Amino acid sequence: MSKQKGDLAENKAVLYLESKKYKIIERNFYAKKLGEIDIIAKINNIYHFLEVKSANDYETAINNITKTKLSKLKRSIDYYLQINNLDEAYCIDAIIVINDDIEHLENITF
Fold first, then answer.
1. Model pTM?
2. pLDDT tens, position by position, 14-60
3. What is the rounded CA–CA span in Å between residue 49 and residue 57?
4. What is the spatial distance between Cα 14 and Cα 110, in angstroms, rounded to a whole number?
5. In a 10 Å sphere around its CB, with 0-12 CB exposed, 13-18 middle and 19+ buried, how is residue 91 labelled?
6. What is the C-alpha to C-alpha distance for residues 107 and 110, in angstroms, rounded to an integer?
7. Domains and CATH numbers, the chain
């Protein structure tokens, strides 16, 4: 997927989250060599670390969230919490964007 398509999917995800009253804390947080967190948002005092995936179909998008990707994401989250001195409740979510359809999968684990 091109960066332009990825940015468009992330923008759609942010608009969706804002419509659900999430507060966007940060976008595209880079954790040195660990990886990137697409969106960090908060609602009801819970941080949500969101991975945004977009593809031509749902199955392709969801299969792009691999164990390796989740492992890097978890290390990036640990880094984020450490450098911001946070001890907060959090979960890892995925947002799947297929054209104009958005599916928010909360608290994903594999």
1. 0.93
2. 999 999 999 999 999 998 888 899 999 999 999 999 999 999 999 99
3. 23
4. 24
5. middle
6. 10
7. 3-105 (3.40.1350.10)
